[in-house]
Amino acid sequence: MTRLIVAAGGGGDAVAAAMLHTALYGDDDRAVILTYAWDRLLIDPVPGPRGADDFTGLDPLTPAVRAVPADARPIPPAGSTLPRLAAELPHTFALLDPHHGAEGVTRQLEELIDHFEPETIDVLDVGGDILARGDEPTLKSPLADALTLAACCQVNAPMRLLIAGPGLDGELPIDDLRGLLVPLIHTFTAEDVWPVASVLEWHPSEATGMLAATARGVRGTCEVRDAGLPVPLTDEGPTVHQVDLDEALDRNELARAVMATETLAEVETLSRELCGYSEIDYEREKAARLKDHPPTELNEETVLAALDQFETGARSRGVTHTTFRHLTEALSLRGSQRQDLRQLLINNRPEQYAPPLWSVTATSTQHTRLTP
């Protein structure tokens, strides 16, 4: 038996898809997870999503769909988390390639459905920005979800749209979503997180990290992204809700606009026209800035002093937790240094590690140094 899960935004949605599969369907079968290879600049220094031509070692599933096995490799300088996900999780990760627009993604979906005849088809979005109208001031990354939604709505097959962790992506306030979130499908627990626990130790997704943290009982306010956006961690964090697919399309102006697109460039143009920006343009601009940003040495004494200063400010803002992605940005380090920073902080102050988040509520007198 095969189940198809479409990770609407790529990245952490693919990890959440693995959580969802175990929680809803158990371990008796395996999922095909269709996902973007789009890990942003923390992992991939090349702006935008990767396509099949950006990898070696992909396996053909259908004429238009390639699987990313554990031994696949992104072609430098590109990077991707998908091969490592394939190595650590028991599912098939199929590459959602947006470079042929909504028509290309629709074709990929149709071929996968014809080939596998899946028992169920779930479209999963962590946070809920797939429900955006497009004019929300907090919306930052509408393109990927809108493209996925546009394609799914053109496929003649039963599928359901699931929103996990409403509001956790920081894109839409939970109050804007609450009226749409019916019915409740599942509430993640710490037991549900266990199958992906090792992945969360290295995967950079903030939204899925917060989803897992709330499932483990973490509550408070988490500061995320380079801008330091505050995201509430509440009892609604670990929930999964179904939303009517047609209602989502009616709300999402960008998804309706891109339905006939044949290239990613067309999708970008429409995003600029309707939303005022393309998130890939933001990545291009940020990548250009980083080229002129000299790497900072990861000196323990300097880093811990900077961390103390950051935490003092964060507590004054009412923040209780943050992500290692945000800490990397806040301490003026490169994305490639995130894992080393994470290990340094956990080694020195293990009581502040609230997997996979970092607690800022401990005071300096509570810190325990484990390194000489």
Describe this structure in words.
This protein is of the alpha/beta class and 372 residues long. Helices cover 39% and strands 17% of the residues. It is built from 16 helices and 16 strands. It has helices at 12-25, 40-43, 82-88, 101-116, 143-152, 174-177, 190-193, 197-200, 206-215, 245-251, 253-257, 264-275, 279-291, 300-316, 324-330, 338-348; strands at 2-7, 30-35, 55-56, 59-62, 65-67, 73-74, 92-95, 120-126, 160-164, 184-187, 220-224, 229-233, 239-243, 321-322, 353-354, 357-359. A 7-stranded mixed sheet has the order 7-2-1-8-9-13-10, with helices on both faces. Strands 12-11-14-16-15 form a 5-stranded mixed sheet. Helix 1 (12-25) runs parallel beside helix 9 and helix 15 (324-330) crosses helix 16 (338-348). The longest helix has 17 residues, at 300-316. It is globular and about 55 Å long. The model is unreliable at 364-372 (pLDDT under 50).
Provide a brief overview of the structure.
The chain is of the alpha/beta class.
Topology summary:
Blueprint: E1 2-7, H1 12-25, E2 30-35, H2 40-43, E3 55-56, E4 59-62, E5 65-67, E6 73-74, H3 82-88, E7 92-95, H4 101-116, E8 120-126, H5 143-152, E9 160-164, H6 174-177, E10 184-187, H7 190-193, H8 197-200, H9 206-215, E11 220-224, E12 229-233, E13 239-243, H10 245-251, H11 253-257, H12 264-275, H13 279-291, H14 300-316, E14 321-322, H15 324-330, H16 338-348, E15 353-354, E16 357-359
Parallel strand pairs: 1-2, 1-8, 2-7, 8-9, 11-14
Antiparallel strand pairs: 3-6, 4-5, 9-13, 10-13, 11-12, 14-16, 15-16
